[in-house]
Amino acid sequence: MQDHILFGTLLNALLVLVGSAIGLSIRGITHGKDLGEKGKRVSDAIFSGLGLGVILVGVGGAIKGAVNDQIMAAIKDGEVEFADISGENTLVIIISMVLGVLVGELIDIDKWVNKLGDKLESAMKGRGGKVSQGFVSASLLFCVGSMTIVGAMNSGISGDHTLLVTKSVMDLVSSVIFSLTMGVGVAFSALFVLVYQGAITLLAAGFGQFLSTQVITCMTSVGSLLIIALGLNMLGVTKLKIMNYMPAMLLPIGLIPLWNLIW
Predict the structure, then answer these.
(1) Terminal-to-terminal C-alpha distance of the chain
(2) Residue 222: pLDDT above 90?
(3) I need a labelling partner for 132 at 20 to 30 A (CA). Which of 116, 142, 168, 177 fits?
(4) How far apart, in whole angstroms, are the C-alpha atoms of residue 6 and residue 29?
(5) What is the rounded radius of gyration, in angstroms, for the C-alpha atoms of the chain?
(6) What does the angle CA 148 – CA 149 – CA 151 come to, to the nearest 5 degrees?
(7) CB 159 within 8 A of CB 6
(8) What is the DSSP string of 167-183?
């Protein structure tokens, strides 16, 4: 089974389901009980804590991307000292974000994904919390990080599932906590993981050898920015339609070669 190209993705989706089942079981124990104002404060505090943790993951990924960018620039130019933390890929990342959200807004990916979540919620007859919120938030958290992209590409190109196995265990824990606060929508995000992460793996198997380290670095940096945005949404600081920014993750595939050709 471990030799299967989608082993890491299948394991990831399975553990998200397992974690969600555990969280929903714990949630069911207190279902219908009035926890009062103090219980609501505790629930809100836990959710905010999750938001802070998500921001930490995103910031860590963004810094790692910037450092990798500087290292690659130093190797290419023969430099030893770094002038600042923003490398030559920063403009490409910004352009990717702008063009990506433009495409996303024109298609309105957020509307279609939320409609899917609302249909799932309707099918559940309102049980299990706000399904669309849990589905969208968990799908983004599990699918836009650097571990998703690099791990899926490793699985597709070399059959190395180590990173996705590690990610699967982390998502198991996250899905337990998320399903406690967001409900059954988190379980449905396993389908998004299966489709999105599986698609990256299959594409990497066919075309991954043509993608440079620079392209992968930019893609993971954009993903890290989206994770930060997700954390800010969870804290109530912003109300960004993050799904509409998802196309930005793919744009470095074309923008980096074009940038290198012009610059």
Answers:
(1) 45
(2) no
(3) 168
(4) 35
(5) 19
(6) 65
(7) no
(8) HHHHHHHHHHHHHHHH-
